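B., you asked whether I could sanity-check this one before it goes into the benchmark set. Here's the sequence:
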Amino acid sequence: MAKHGRVVGAVTALGLTAASAGLCYMASQGHVPIPAAAGLGAFAAVVLPAGWMLGRSYDRLKTDATVDALTGVYNRQFIEAAFRKLERQASRKRKRMTVMLLDVNDFKDVNDRFGHQQGDSALALIAETLRHCAERGEFVGRWGGDEFILICPYADDKAIERITKRIHDQLLAVSRRIGLRLSVSVGCAVFPDHGKDLRQLTHGADKRMYADKYASKTQEAEPAALQA
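And here's what the prediction gave me:
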């Protein structure tokens, strides 16, 4: 959770206490009577915790507005707002960037076999893996259900291949550790080549992601002799 609100709240409370002390000092002509000093202490004891609590409430509201509660990555609302800013910057600088959609493979089977609690844990593990793979300033978000999104501030094919391979490799390592197969199908779309807004880009990425999913299922279904 962000701490900005709590810091601001505490600093504001300290400022109010200091201002009150200064006014009391000036009013008493350089001498603060004991009762007044005690009153300032009581004032500080009330204002400081209140400022901290109000700041914490602000931080919680801000976090809830930007972060998906289950997975800890950005929520769809934040991703959409962030993309609008990134799109303006990319257009101004004539840069390309990539939108990646990732769909969890066979997620319904996980829920059916192990229950929704295990399914939620699987989504959280996948989200954590995606965050660890985001090493070049990628924005990681939960797009909805068992779909995730990455906004990559680059469109280099080799860079996209590297992060895709890193995601697959790390999910394989997680799967071996927990004894549950976790994998994703991936589809990409490039701004502005495949679209100039997030709706167009996610539509294109979604098509490529399902093509990737179909290809993976087809390969798995082929006899071993045919895969050679």
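One thing to flag: Helices lie at 4-27, 34-66, 76-93, 107-114, 116-133, 157-178, 198-221, 224-227. Otherwise nothing jumped out at me.
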